[in-house]
Amino acid sequence: MKNEKICVIGCGNLGKSIAKGLLEHEDFNSENVIATRRKLKLIEDLKPHGAEITSDNLYAVRNSNIILVAVKPYNVDKIINEIKPEIIEDKHILVSLATGLGTNEISEMLDDKIPVFRAMPNIAADIGESVTCICGKNSSVEHTQKVKSIFDAIGESLIINEELMEAATILGACGIAFVFRFIRAMIQGGIQIGFDANTANQIVSQTVKGAAKMLQENSNHPESEIDKVTTPKGCTIVGLNEMEHQGFSSSLIRGIVTSFEKIEK
Ligand SMILES: NC(=O)C1=CN([C@@H]2O[C@H](COP(=O)(O)OP(=O)(O)OC[C@H]3O[C@@H](n4cnc5c(N)ncnc54)[C@H](O)[C@@H]3O)[C@@H](O)[C@H]2O)C=CC1
Ligand SMILES: O=C(O)[C@@H]1CCC=N1
User: Hey, what domains does the chain have and what are their CATH numbers?
Assistant: First the structure.
């Protein structure tokens, strides 16, 4: 990937996380990363990491071959119309990160001239720990591999069917917010039983990291790990059962479904 030139158009919350993740990765040449935003001041901190920053999207496209579009969904057509004159067949690949916009719609905006992908990462790209679901249109195995390599560099990636892209948005991209809210609640509980906020944060964050790593490394079902913690008549099971009486699993599932219904509208 050393020779791939990547531009990230619209470096807001997500785009900037991705640019940062790529800049930190040894497989990429940081001089080959161009980041754009209208208010340049807000991405100046990417410069010391080696990125070129500009508010000129046409310049960014001219000087790259992989274009990541990280603007809000309602700005995508405007951006595509702006950069279209610089798009060259057999040179460019466009990857849209926009929620809810299909590859067909985006490809049509580009007159089906170049391969188009949709990717759904999350903000943990910032530290190279995103999970990104990807699907493509007019895409060869080689193009798909190229796009996958970008997102593998900022975490893990999966190629999925486009019909699952909305579900991927909820579980992975919105999902990190759900996890943060869970963590916040754990911290609040920790404070109530005696820890200061920083200590509670440290204990909870490492506990969540450990749980996630165990699932990744052992491939066990979460419930079989829970069984190892719940001493009969002990303090874990009474806490878990009280959480369930209060609708813990149910509220998470309903939240996920509500988010999904919103995106499907
Ligand atoms: N925030 C998240 O966690 C995730 C967001 N997404 C998708 O990613 C996209 C971006 O989301 P956010 O980063 O949250 O939005 P954001 O609003 O923080 O970032 C978009 C950025 O694009 C910039 N921009 C707008 N027009 C521009 C132009 N003409 N030239 C250069 N820059 C321009 C804006 O100033 C802004 O900084 C959206 O389509 C969203 O659906 C997808 C997954 C996760
Ligand atoms: O909340 C949203 O609409 C976007 C989509 C994925 C994450 N943020």
Answer: 6-160 (3.40.50.720), 168-264 (1.10.3730.10)
Q: Give per-residue pLDDT as tens, 106-156.
A: 999 999 999 999 999 999 999 999 999 999 987 899 999 999 999 999 999
Q: How far apart are CA 86 and CA 125, in angstroms?
A: 28
ipTM score? 0.98
Q: Which of 120, 131, 133, 169 to mutate to test the pocket of ligand 2 (most atoms within 8 A of CB)?
A: 169
Residue nearest to atom 3 of ligand 2 (CA): 99
Asked whether the beta carbons of 86 and 63 are under 8 A apart, the reply is no
Average pLDDT, the chain: 96
What is the pTM for the complete model shown? 0.94
Rounded distance from Cα 70 to ligand 1 centre (Å): 5
Query: Is the pLDDT assigned to residue 29 strictly greater than 80?
Result: yes
Q: Which two tokens stand for residue 228?
A: 């190892």
Burial of 60: CB neighbours in 10 Å, binned 0-12, 13-18, 19+: buried
Pick the residue whose CA is nearest to atom 2 on ligand 2: 174
Residues forming a β-bridge with 131: 156
